[in-house]
Write a structure and sequence with these properties.
- The complex is a heterodimer of chains A (about 300) and B (about 375).
- Chain A has about 300 residues and is mainly α.
- A two-stranded antiparallel sheet of chain A has the order 1-2. A two-stranded antiparallel ribbon of chain A has the order 3-4.
- In chain A, a hairpin with a 5-residue loop joins strand 1 and strand 2.
- In chain A, helix 7 crosses helix 9 and helix 9 packs antiparallel against helix 12.
- Chain B has a 6-stranded mixed beta sheet with strand order 6-7-8-3-9-10, with helices on both faces. A 5-stranded mixed barrel of chain B has the order 11-12-13-20-14.
- The two termini of chain B are about 40 Å apart.
- The longest helix of chain B is centred in the middle third of the chain and has 18 residues.
- Chain B is an alpha+beta fold.
- The chains are: A mainly alpha (about 300), B alpha+beta (about 375).
- The interface between A and B is medium-sized, with 23 and 31 residues.
Chain lengths: ~300, ~375
């Protein structure tokens, strides 16, 4: 039995018109390009770097290590090469590390802002957002200036060592996995802080008082009341951080030099340097499926946007 | 120990964002007896909730000391005080079931699981919510949530239960039911209740003793009858129930202590009691409750300064409210007073009296002389 209320024709048309811009946007800029990428990922590259549209799983097999037409180092095909799997693994580990670090750094800060007097909260949030006003790439170059061997950090350390009469060898900080992790955490921290702040700010302060009243010390209040109630914010922040970290290539390009290659760099190079869009497309699809699967698993496990109805 | 709670010269001052100082509680001294139902009554902003929060430990006094059963509380955080609170908005943990909410406080005491289960069951039974353990707070009605909050606090067996306007969010009928239920519960468990409310009727119904607060100060402490029948100043007389205020001048001091002869502005004389010493010629206010006045017909009579007082006037307005009728009468040369008569017989209300001359009569013993 249908329970859908009848909508007058005029209202329905108006609804459709309101939806039209986003519909066009989605179809033109998301669904069609995504379809093209999917089709391309089953294609093949001709010697001039053009895509031959056909149906082959070679690109996917190559990503998983089974190369049928490309040599693995000096071994001629067919051969096994774990190169792409290791890139994928490195990206996953980095995404995981970045997420954990942003939660550990962002949560206390978000809590501090959420518990600050209402008149100061907006100023604090502004401070969190100010870095986002400067271009992404420029901020990464700033980190290069800090981290390089004759950079700010090494100069300060050298000066301190000089004061203490200690021998000092400049540290190799730039172009290391650590530098990439640092850049990622720096870059994505605001996207963790904001959703956690939002969920913490919604918690009725009398719940903290109720917990204390019932005998909970501050730690137990955090574990039993604050953390569970801010879980929606942590979940949202995790998705906002983990998904882009998995795909981004600028941070690893600038702070990792050519030493730290992530799946984002792989895709970028297939489209630009290696001129193999078919293989790049397959890598994109694999990345998307992977992040989608992880996000789905994660949100099933912890719930997403599930507002806990306040009593 | 005689007192469950003692507040000694407790003050609480805040600095606002603008830098001005606000005195929320001003030099309050209170002694709350063990096992009594004690209410802090006053309008919003009178300092009653701040006083309660200082007893709970959520706020620290700027000056003065608080003792619970003789133990000073100045360095004791809320989680280590032998009191529990029922919050105005209930403050149930929304992510926990009813059972988990009630068990929370016992888990913090690290009691054995079996004992927790047993006591949670007993507490929910006490508030007639047995079988609701598995539900979430948002699945319950306001009244049920209120009872869960009560069970969650009482399951800890506190020395004192603090209640911050716990019935404020309920509708009138449910509120009346819960008032009686709370009073009954308090008698059964024998725990001291400190109850904050702005509803004077609620305070009168439930309390053994009431402290009336205004502007951060305690104006009067006493039983419901003491506060209603013998208000010490104009604020208390006005805030608790309805009162007519007549102005007058002290004419003479009478032989009995605390009794004075007062001439009202309209000319009528009466002898009434005052708690403050007065001198002849002093301007005073005479307070008299509407139900202590009555209309004694349209006939004018001479006044009797000693006990019976009768003042002529004209009926301006008649309001029928079911059990009673209010007659608003403009006294000769004086203010409008409200007379409240019970609709006892079939001839009530006397609607025909509107615009008529009447005498408003009352017993002078029911009048109180107030200074301000």
């Amino acid at each position: 039995m249908s329970t859908i209320p009848s909508v007058p024709g005029g209202a329905r048309r108006r609804g459709f018109l309101l939806m039209l811009p986003s519909l066009l946007w989605m179809v033109g800029l998301l669904i069609i390009p995504l379809g093209l990428v999917l089709v391309m990922s089953f294609g093949r590259r001709d010697p001039d770097g053009n895509v031959i549209y056909t149906f082959t799983l070679d690109n996917y097999l190559r990503l998983l290590g089974f190369s049928r037409s490309y040599p693995c180092g000096s071994t001629p095909p067919p051969c096994f090469d774990a190169l792409y799997l290791s890139i994928l693994w490195r990206s996953l580990v980095l995404g995981f590390q970045t997420t954990v670090l942003t939660v550990l750094i962002g949560y206390p800060l978000a809590y501090f802002i959420a518990r600050a007097p209402a008149s100061r909260r907006n100023s604090y949030l502004l401070l969190v957002l100010i870095p986002l006003w400067t271009n992404f790439v420029i901020r990464l170059y700033a980190w290069m200036i800090i981290l390089r061997s004759q950079g700010v950090l090494n100069s300060v350390l050298g000066w301190l060592a000089g004061l203490l009469n200690l021998p000092f060898q400049p540290l190799e900080l730039l172009y290391t996995p650590g530098a990439v992790l640092l850049g990622m955490v720096y870059e994505f921290l605001p996207f963790m802080i904001l959703p956690i702040y939002t969920s913490l700010e919604k918690i009725n302060p009398s719940l903290y008082e109720a917990a204390a009243d019932l005998g909970a010390n501050p730690w137990r209040t955090l574990w039993r009341v604050t953390l569970p109630l801010s879980m929606p914010g942590i979940v949202a922040g995790t998705i906002l951080v983990f998904v882009p970290v998995m795909g981004t290539f600028i941070v690893s390009d600038i702070l990792g030099g050519r030493q730290v290659i992530l799946i984002g760099n792989l895709i970028q190079r297939q489209f630009l340097d290696a001129r193999d869009p078919a293989f790049g497309s397959a890598a994109s699809i694999l990345l998307m499926v992977l992040t989608l699967a992880m996000t789905l698993y994660y949100t099933r496990r912890f719930g997403f946007g599930e507002e806990i109805t306040s009593a | 120990m005689k007192y469950a709670i003692e507040m000694r010269n407790v003050s609480k001052r805040y600095l606002t964002a603008a830098g001005t100082e606000v005195v929320a509680v001003d030099n309050v001294t209170l002694e709350i007896l063990d096992g009594e139902f004690f209410s802090l009554l006053g309008p919003s902003g009178c300092g009653k909730t701040t006083s309660l929060r200082m007893i709970a430990g959520f706020e620290l006094p700027t000056a003065g000391e608080i003792y619970i059963h003789g133990r000073p509380m100045d360095a004791i955080p809320p989680n280590r005080r032998p009191v529990n609170t029922v919050f105005q908005n209930y403050a149930l943990f929304p992510h926990m079931t009813i059972g988990q909410n009630v068990a929370f406080g016992l888990e913090m005491e690290r009691l054995p699981k079996a004992e927790i289960t047993r006591r949670v069951g007993e507490a929910l039974e006490m508030v007639r919510l047995a079988g609701y353990e598995k539900r979430k707070p948002h699945q319950l009605s306001g009244g049920q949530q209120q009872r869960v909050a009560l069970a969650r606090a009482l399951v800890k067996r506190p020395e004192v239960l603090l209640l911050d306007e716990p019935l404020g969010a309920l509708d009138l009928k449910l509120r009346k039911e819960m008032q009686l239920e709370l009073k009954k519960l308090q008698r059964e468990v024998g725990i001291t209740f400190v109850y904050v409310t702005h509803d004077q009727e609620e305070a009168l119904t439930m309390s053994d003793r009431i402290a009336v607060m205004n502007g951060g100060r305690v104006l009067q402490v006493g039983t419901a009858a003491e506060i209603y029948e013998r208000p010490r100043n104009r604020f208390v007389a006005d805030f608790i129930g309805e009162t007519n205020f007549l102005t007058g001048t002290v004419v003479a001091t009478m032989a009995e202590e605390h009794r004075y002869l007062v001439q009202l502005t309209g000319g009528a004389m009466l002898a009434a009691t005052s708690e403050h010493p007065l001198r002849p010629g002093q301007q005073v206010i005479v307070a008299i409750r509407p139900e202590k006045m009555h209309l004694n017909g349209s006939q004018r009579s001479l006044y009797h300064p000693d006990t019976r007082v009768s003042i002529p006037g004209r009926v301006q307005e008649i309001v029928y409210i079911g059990t009673d009728t209010h007659y608003d009468v403009r006294l000769e040369g004086g203010p409008v007073v409200r007379v409240r008569e019970q609709n006892r017989d079939a001839f009530a209300p006397k609607l025909g009296l509107i615009g008529e001359s009447v005498n408003v009569g009352f017993d002078a013993a029911a009048a109180r002389i107030l200074v301000d």
